[in-house]
Amino acid sequence: MEDRLLDELIKSTKSCDTDFIHAPIRLQDRIKWYIQNLPTYPYVREQWKNFLFSNGLTTGDPKLDQKVDDFLYRHNIQGVTNYSVIQEGCAQAREYGKCGIRWLSEEDGIVLVPSDQYVSLVIQNEQYKGFEQVIAYAISVKNEPIAVASSPFKLDEDEFYRTGRLITENEDIFIETPDNFCNLRNDNTTENGVSCFDRDKQRLNLLSSVYERLNYDIVYDGPGRIILRLKDSYLPTGQVDLSASSYLESTEISKESRADKAIKEAEALANKIKNSSSDNVLLLSPNFEDNIEHLERVTKATEFFTWLNKEGSIVAQAFGITPELIGLGDVSGNVSMEKIIDNAMVNTIIPLRESFATQFSPMLSAKLGVPKLYFDKYELQYNVDRSSERYKDSLSVAQLVTALTEKKDGEQELSPDLRSKVEEALSRVLDHIIEQT
Q1: Residue 407 near residue 399 (C-beta atoms within 8 A)
Q2: Pairing outcome for strands 109-113 and 98-105
Q3: Model confidence pLDDT, tens digit, residues 353-405
Q4: CB 170, CB 141: distance < 8 Å
Q5: Residue 185 shares a structural domain with residue 252
């Protein structure tokens, strides 16, 4: 089996004429910019992870759950709990489209492999034709990004026969089999997944541009564009044509000419204005007209404050979580928070749980000797809340019935007919409430 795997890997690299090189990936840089510069992103990410794992992993069997929990809450070789590795893997798969989870051993645990530090090795399926299947994963040894290049890489066959490890001769790439590696993807219909940011990049790019422009305006705080006009008497008629074409095209006028002096004065004044503060006093040359025309900027960052106020909602929607669920959206007064939570969990979080669990469960369940791993069942909050309300209503009605049937000193007694009607109505309401609980 090992010989056949090695032969297939060597054949696949020779047939596609590709190698793997260390290179920057532009998509990764753009996503990292979002992560590091959008203010609400850390909060959205953490809340998304909390809701995704608000119900723990289970096998459905309490005895097997104990075995799984022992592994999940054990620290791996890097000092991180295996449960945290799975949580972070899901978050990174959401961000970058994919993230690798590598199995070391039951004692050493599992570790993360960032999305840009591994690639899938695929071959054409010879039996069914028409599609590719994964046979292994190429992982960077140096923890650097790798990408496909134009020359084939060469595996160290002696190392493979000696230790069973598949590694390149220059020891920068090693090969891991699917049994020990989970390619956790945001969209498991594609081998490389799809970043959640890539599906909403127009609004995110607009937010990025707004922040960059706002920072520019704050740092430079310039006055915009100004127009200075020379007095007609500065250059007497017939001496020098003060047209733009004359300035640009003429080569006969010396640098000390009046026209050149005027340009230098204008440039010096412009620099003084640009570098001055609001309490500086500037002297205008008598060669210029008194009326200085100021051209304001066409667009200002303040015009996009509405977008900045909605940044949290935009980031939450891009990340795939209902903004109202984490307190970033506008909630109507007649909608209960329980309904919002239930709707977000049922329609967004639970489908994501199933998508991720079905990817990491095969590897972990096989290694831990359990049938499968999945997220524990979510209990609807609104139903629980309604049961509590009905119970409180039943107590209130019972107290009213008691108050009607017991006469206190100084109180006027109700007429028998009215008392009978009220008691009958309250009893019916009480019976209805009890039936609904």
Answers
A1: no
A2: antiparallel
A3: 999 999 999 999 999 999 999 999 988 766 554 555 555 666 666 666 665 56
A4: no
A5: no
Same domain for 180 and 259, yes or no, is: no
**Same structural domain for residues 277 and 404?**
no
pTM of the model: 0.70
Distance CA(394)–CA(433), nearest Å, equals 6
**Residue where a domain terminates, one of 178, 197, 216:** 197
Tokens of 308: 């900045």
Q: Are 137 and 119 in contact (CB under 8 A)?
A: yes
**For 143-175, what is each residue's pLDDT tens digit?**
888 866 545 667 777 777 787 778 887 778 888
Residue span of the structural domain in which 239 resides: 228-294
**Shared-domain flag, residues 167 and 290:** no
Q: Which of 197, 214, 236 is the last residue of a domain?
A: 197
Claim to verify: residue 269 and residue 185 sit in the same structural domain: no
Verify that 174 and 239 share a domain, yes or no. no
Is pLDDT larger for residue 205 or for residue 84? 84
R_g over Cα of the chain: 36
Alpha carbons within 13 A on the beta-carbon side of 372? 8
The pair of three-digit structure tokens given for residue 348, joined into one six-digit string = 């967004």
Q: Which residue has the tokens 């000092």?
A: 79
Evaluate whether residue 216 is within a structural domain: no
Average pLDDT over residues 331-349: 78
Tell whether 67 is covered by a domain.
yes
Mean pLDDT of the chain: 77
Q: How many domains does the chain have?
A: 3
